[in-house]
Amino acid sequence: MGTASIPLSRQRPSTGRLLLYAVTGVLLVFLVAPIAVVFPLSLSAGELLVLPTPGYSWRWYADFFNSQRWLLATYNSFVVGILTTLIATTLGTLAAIGLYLGRFRGKALILALLSLPMVTPVIVTAIALYFSLSAVGLGSTLTGLVLAHTVLSVPYVLLTVLASLQAFDPNLLRAAASLGANPVQSFYRVVLPLITPAVATGALFAFATSFDELIVALFIASPDQFTLPRQMYAGIREFLSPTIAAAAVLIILLSVFLLMINEAIRKHAIRHILPPTDRMP
Description:
Layout: H1 15-36, H2 38-42, H3 59-66, H4 68-101, H5 107-114, H6 116-119, H7 122-135, H8 142-165, H9 171-178, H10 183-211, H11 215-220, H12 228-238, H13 243-272
Helix pairs in contact: 3-13, 4-8, 4-10, 4-12, 8-10, 9-10, 10-13
């Protein structure tokens, strides 16, 4: 009789796999350690950002939520982020559908131009936006800041939705048209339900890009329109208070929350939208 095969789950990992695990662990520690350091600093009982901390206290979180400047900056960041998300998601989605379904020359060039804000140095984009918005009277205004962040966010929505459309069958639109649906009905009833996960993911990227952006805000926002990153930057220049670490922890928690939403959207798409043959474990 032949020797019974050992189940894969009970096989000892090879040396190469153990080495891979070790290298992965070291890389994770290298990437996460600088972020993890912020948490004890935000709970420091001292007046300065030093490690080890002289003690632990919630005083800096209380200072954050009791400070009018920090709360106003947080409010501005959410307002700008939500408005940017709405505009960028709409423009990016429509541009992606137009590029995918359109039949014209120069599509690659247009896609490259629309993607430029992702590869252009932010300082260059900020200077260009500053002069452009100032020329039309939108410098140092909330509207100008929203438009500037929209320019930065649209490429993320565009590429996310465009990648999702690669699996879309244009014959579905022809079938909808043959049944009497006009282009608007075809979009809402055929295209949008299939690309909703990609649109939602692009919207999350747009919000995160706007909420965490600093360089453009330094050029565009007025002193009365400080966003949270700009308020943190001003705090570093004026006085290095542990309140900055508390604000950083809140931003990190928000980022984790957005990642959890993105993962939930991905799992929903796998279970309810993708056909069984395209599902991955």
